[in-house]
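Q: Could you predict the 3D structure of Transcription and mRNA export factor SUS1?
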Amino acid sequence: MSSDSDKLRLALSRHFVDSGEKERLMNLLRNRLAESGWNDTLYAQCRETVRQRKLENVTLDELVKESSDFGRSSVNENIKKELLVQIKKYLDTAFDS
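A: Sure. Here are the predicted structure tokens for Transcription and mRNA export factor SUS1:
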């Protein structure tokens, strides 16, 4: 059985998608990451991994696994803060009672 927190999380997730807010935030994130050069940095890191391990010795799944932690940790803190502010602002507006 799902807990109340799981039900709330699912309802919030559905609301974000249905309202279009998730898509807006995803677009904002994509733009900020591109502006900061994050995409290029991640691409370079992937190329270096492939070069070091030789193309024949790396699968896409392995590359994704190795790059995921690097990708998450290399996102600029200002971008994370901006998204968090946007999410809080949306929740305050959408659920202000």
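Q: Anything worth pointing out?
A: Residues 61 and 87 are 31 Å apart (CA to CA).
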